[in-house]
Design goal:
14% helix, four-stranded antiparallel β-sheet, three-stranded antiparallel β-sheet
Length: 91
C-alpha cells in the first residue's frame, strides 16, 4: 500500500527500493482511466508514480488538500469507462 509522510509519498515495490516523490517536487496529479480501473499519476522532480486505485488508501483525501485540486475532474474520471487522462491538479 502507498503511504505518505509530511515530506513525501512512498510506494513500496516488492524486492526493490520503494518509489518516492517529495511533496515539494510534485508538479501535477492526473487520473488515468481504463475500461475497468483508474490510476493516480503523480509527477514531479523528474519522477512519475503510478498508483492503482486499490493501493491508495487515504491518498485521495491528502491530494484533495492541495490548493486548487479539481474535484470535478476527479469525479469525471471515476465515471469514465474508456482510456482517458484527467488533470486534477497542477502547480
Amino acid at each position: 500500500m502507498v503511504h505518505w509522510t509530511q515530506e513525501q509519498v512512498i510506494r513500496p515495490l516488492p524486492g526493490a527500493d520503494p518509489q518516492t516523490l517529495a511533496w515539494s517536487e510534485l508538479q501535477q496529479v492526473k487520473i488515468l482511466t481504463t475500461e475497468v480501473d483508474f490510476y493516480f499519476l503523480l509527477e514531479g522532480g523528474g519522477k512519475s508514480l503510478v498508483i492503482a486505485q486499490e493501493e491508495q488508501t487515504g491518498l485521495l483525501e491528502r491530494l484533495q488538500e492541495l490548493p486548487g485540486f479539481d474535484n470535478d475532474a476527479f469525479i469525471q474520471a471515476t465515471m469514465s469507462a474508456s482510456n482517458a487522462e484527467f488533470l486534477c491538479w497542477k502547480r
